[in-house]
């Protein structure tokens, strides 16, 4: 095995830069939020809610512009049967950020939530919050594992070093600075990483374009040169599949903790919206070099390059077209700089997902479900441990499982069909309750799993209209297999069924219990009859006035701060006046006793 010393030096310098920036950000903001009385654990999760437009715009863009984004976009543009027409991620995720900014960012930020799961636990209870944590956690962990796996493959192509070593080192660096600085380290390193991605890829494109083996990409876009035109096309039979996938990206890209972590860290609700719109523009801009690299790959006579006579698509290496173009069509110093860009993209996504998963666990599972009286110091340590555990789990999966991409596809689908309709209901539909939420969860789960997942060799047990059997080469075994292909937009239909099921079963349960058709004693979830649900109300008092639902009087985390669930879940100005006065009196009494 040949070790490229220049490449290793370039990567080492880049990783050192990222590590230094992460540690500097943690040191710079170590006292952030103390003057305002914000707990250290909340500072780690949402950065003291003082992230400005510049850093916020970069870190929000880096939420989606990761290794999967730039590699995947280049791959789809390059593949003969797909092309630019099927490279949906840039426009899908950009529209996702626009929709999120228009409709979801303002209500989430203005109510002062700390994680995406807060509104679910507030309305549906801690057990339902725990159920919704499962697909959210799966999405974050499998996403991290998938992009770490992609990084290992990329590094092995250009630098020719051991895949496992490169994955472990990259993961350890991302885990370390996330452990030290939380969201501040993640956000500041995102600025550096996004800059490196932009510069690294744009430096590579001109060198690749002028390579003698590359034909005019404007010609190969519409005419067959070495393969079918890279512009691509959508067959009539695949129209519904295209629409289904696009809706998955556009709407399924919203209910992710990595997105709402940025929204909730913004200094105001308006800033949260502006950050979403800036990131949408950033996603489109960052996709341009990836599209061009995919087009260059489709316009190359590989027989005239050091890669060899057989094109990457024929070697089943289309997913690595971006590093292959950097390696074989650019000078060595350019390809190593581009490699740094790819590494940056991966780390900028991995650190975000690991922090998001640990934030949801520490707050929504450990604190709100089991240990409401947990101290701030205790929560900080729970977060540190889970950052390490979830990061290690993602790394392990990247190293040992060959189906990490299939698990990521399935879990992202579950986020779309289960969490998105629930988020829609909890924020915008009055009257939904825990019974509707459980029914919606089951509807979405059964209808999506029923459609099967070819990547995992999971056969369908629901055959939707228009299904066909196709022969395809399996990605891991290389054997020809007969698989069932669903041409019906069953993911979006599953999402709509889940949403309608939530509304229908919520109102049905409400009618049956309130009309007396079912005895009140059978309201075992305390979701309709009981005004003070034991499920939601553990050590709290539920205050319901008009449209405002707030939780207050949680056992204080620190006597001097008197942290309440009202402070955690809602803005004080949305609470009833008498509730605020009661809190102020109780706070005054507490401070009086402390003084004595």
UniProtKB/TrEMBL annotation:
* A GO biological-process term: synaptic transmission, cholinergic
Q: Which Gene3D superfamilies match?
A: Sodium/glucose cotransporter
- Name the membrane topology term: Multi-pass membrane protein
Which Pfam family name is an example for this entry? Answer: SSF
Q: What reaction does this catalyse? A: choline(out) + n Na(+)(out) = choline(in) + n Na(+)(in)
Q: Where is this region: Disordered?
A: 574-596
Q: Give one GO molecular function term.
A: choline:sodium symporter activity
The listed locations are: Presynaptic cell membrane
The Gene Ontology CC terms held by the record are: axon; dendrite; perikaryon; presynaptic membrane
Q: Which InterPro entries match?
A: Choline_transporter (IPR052244), Na/Glc_symporter_sf (IPR038377), Na/solute_symporter (IPR001734)
- CDD domains per the UniProt record, alphabetical: SLC5sbd_CHT
Q: Which UniProt keywords apply?
A: Glycoprotein, Ion transport, Membrane, Neurotransmitter biosynthesis, Sodium, Sodium transport, Symport, Transmembrane, Transmembrane helix, Transport
Q: Where are the transmembrane segments?
A: 6-27, 48-70, 90-108, 129-151, 163-184, 191-210, 239-259, 271-296, 379-400, 406-428, 435-451
Judging by the UniProt lineage, the source's domain of life is Eukaryota
Provide the family line: Belongs to the sodium:solute symporter (SSF) (TC 2.A.21) family.
What this chain does, per the entry, is described as:
High-affinity Na(+)-coupled choline transmembrane symporter. Functions as an electrogenic, voltage-dependent transporter with variable charge/choline stoichiometry. Choline uptake and choline-induced current is also Cl(-)-dependent where Cl(-) is likely a regulatory ion rather than cotransported ion. Plays a critical role in acetylcholine (ACh) synthesis by taking up the substrate choline from the synaptic cleft into the presynaptic nerve terminals after neurotransmitter release.
Question: Can you state the subunit structure given in the record?
Answer: Homooligomerizes at cell surface. Interacts with SEC14L1; may regulate SLC5A7.
Q: What is this protein called?
A: High affinity choline transporter 1
Q: Which organism is it from?
A: Xyrichtys novacula
């Amino acid at each position: 095995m040949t070790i490229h010393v220049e490449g290793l030096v370039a990567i080492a310098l880049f990783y050192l830069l990222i590590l230094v920036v992460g540690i500097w950000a943690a040191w710079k903001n170590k006292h952030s939020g103390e003057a305002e009385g914000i707990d250290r654990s909340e500072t780690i999760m949402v950065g003291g809610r003082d992230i400005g437009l510049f850093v916020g715009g970069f870190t929000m863009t880096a939420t989606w512009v990761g290794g999967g984004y730039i590699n995947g976009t280049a791959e789809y543009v390059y593949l003969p049967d797909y092309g630019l027409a099927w490279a949906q991620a840039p426009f899908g995720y950009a529209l996702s950020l626009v929709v999120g900014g228009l409709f979801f960012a303002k209500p989430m930020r203005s109510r002062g939530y700390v994680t995406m799961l807060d509104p679910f636990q507030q309305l549906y209870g801690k057990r339902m919050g725990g159920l919704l944590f499962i697909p959210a956690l799966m999405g974050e962990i499998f996403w991290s594992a998938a992009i770490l796996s992609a990084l290992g493959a990329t590094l092995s192509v250009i630098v020719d070093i051991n895949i496992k070593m490169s994955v472990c080192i990259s993961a350890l660096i991302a885990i370390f600075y996330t452990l030290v600085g939380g969201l501040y380290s993640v956000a500041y390193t995102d600025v550096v990483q996004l800059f490196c991605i932009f510069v690294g890829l744009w430096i590579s494109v001109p060198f690749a374009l002028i390579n003698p083996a590359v034909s005019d990409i404007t010609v190969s876009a519409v005419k067959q040169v070495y393969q079918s035109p890279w512009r691509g096309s959508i067959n009539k039979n695949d129209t519904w599949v295209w629409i289904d996938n696009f809706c998955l990206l556009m709407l399924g890209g919203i209910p992710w903790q990595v997105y709402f972590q940025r929204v909730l860290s913004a200094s105001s609700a308006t800033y949260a919206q502006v950050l979403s719109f800036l990131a949408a523009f950033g996603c489109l801009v960052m996709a341009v070099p990836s599209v061009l690299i995919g087009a260059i790959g489709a316009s190359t006579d590989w027989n005239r390059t050091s890669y060899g006579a057989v094109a990457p698509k024929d070697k089943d290496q289309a997913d690595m077209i971006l590093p292959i173009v950097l390696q074989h069509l650019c000078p060595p110093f350019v390809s190593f700089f581009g490699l740094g860009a790819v590494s940056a993209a991966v780390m900028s996504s991995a650190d975000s997902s690991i922090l998001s998963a640990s934030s949801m666990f520490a707050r929504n599972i450990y604190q709100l479900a089991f240990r409401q009286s947990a101290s701030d110091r205790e929560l900080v340590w729970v977060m540190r441990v889970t950052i390490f555990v979830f990061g290690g789990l993602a790394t392990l999966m990247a190293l040992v499982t060959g189906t990490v991409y299939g698990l990521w596809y399935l879990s992202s689908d579950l986020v779309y069909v289960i969490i998105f309709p629930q988020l829609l209901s909890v924020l915008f539909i009055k009257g939904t309750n825990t019974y509707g939420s459980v029914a919606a969860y089951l509807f979405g789960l059964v209808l999506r799993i029923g459609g099967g997942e070819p990547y995992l060799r999971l056969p369908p047990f629901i055959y939707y209209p228009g299904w066909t059997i196709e022969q395809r080469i399996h990605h891991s075994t290389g054997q020809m297999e007969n698989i069932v292909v669903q041409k019906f937009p069953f993911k979006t239909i599953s999402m709509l069924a889940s949403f309608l099921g939530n509304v229908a079963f919520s109102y049905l349960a409400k009618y049956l219990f309130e009309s007396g058709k079912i005895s009140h004693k059978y309201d075992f979830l305390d979701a309709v009859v009981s005004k003070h649900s034991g499920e939601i109300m553990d050590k709290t008092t539920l205050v319901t006035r008009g449209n405002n639902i707030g939780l207050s009087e949680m056992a204080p985390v620190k006597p001097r701060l008197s942290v309440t669930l009202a402070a955690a879940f809602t803005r004080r100005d949305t609470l009833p006046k008498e509730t605020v006065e009661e809190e102020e009196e109780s706070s005054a009494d507490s401070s009086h006793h402390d003084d004595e």
